Amino acid sequence: MKINIINTSEHPLPQYETAHAAGMDLRASLTEEVILKPLQRLLVPTGLFIELPIGYEAQIRPRSGLAYKHGISIVNAPGTIDADYRGEIKVLLVNLSDTDFKIVNGDRIAQMVVAKHETVSWQTVEQLGETARGEGGYGHTGK
Questions:
Q1: 82 assigned binding-site residue
Q2: Which numeric CATH code is attached to 4-14+21-116?
């Protein structure tokens, strides 16, 4: 699949780091380093603008290494870029650790997965089909 992209950053386009990776790393596009303090949220620019085909979304997800090593995540994970959005992709990071985290220009801050989605239309009914699970949820299996 080919997707139109504008890159105003000085960094290479997002790419898959391994042959079977689902996500491509996004890099911070900053003019100066920033410090993300504990429990602080920060919208970090990437310098990327994309034109997704109708029926697709770009999911912005945390990087597992940043989450594990530094407690850095995304507030609204996964964030969604809709097909009709034309603004810059920015990543809403949060520092869940108890120490400051420095972000510099070019740091890999998130990953992006492009995925197909369906558009639904609701059909109002009086009863739903039966399943073995039924209404069980929120730990109903005891595991």
A1: yes
A2: 2.70.40.10
